[in-house]
């Protein structure tokens, strides 16, 4: 009976970060005006504020 779920190669891939270019990071994490209005930090957590 095997006690390991992943092989050494699979573990190495799962424990490392992929190479992502700066442009892709900026594109993925940049907030659009719609994102900012959805987040709206000025609003509270009360149900009336939703």
Characterization of the model:
This protein has 3 helices and no strands. The chain has helices at 8-14, 22-29, 33-39. The protein is elongated and about 55 Å long.
Brief summary of the model shown:
This is DUF4158 domain-containing protein. The chain is an all-alpha fold.
Which stretches are poorly predicted, pLDDT < 50 over at least 5 residues?
none
Globular, elongated, flat, extended or rod-shaped: what is the shape?
Answer: elongated
Return the string of H and E elements: HHH
Radius of gyration: 20 Å
What is the number of beta strands?
0
Work out the oligomeric state of the chains in this entry.
single chain
- Quick check: average pLDDT? 82
Report helical residue fraction. Answer: 40-55%
**Number of helices, counting only DSSP H or I runs of 4 residues or more:** 3
Largest sheet: none
How large is the share of residues in beta strands? under 5%
Number of domains: 1
Q: How far apart, in Å, are the first and last alpha carbons?
A: 53 Å
**Structural class per helix/strand content?**
mainly alpha
């Amino acid at each position: 009976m095997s006690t390991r779920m992943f092989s050494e190669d699979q573990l190495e891939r799962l424990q490392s970060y992929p190479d992502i270019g700066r442009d892709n990071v900026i594109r993925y994490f940049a907030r659009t005006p719609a994102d900012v209005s959805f987040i709206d930090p000025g609003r509270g957590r009360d149900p009336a504020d939703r």
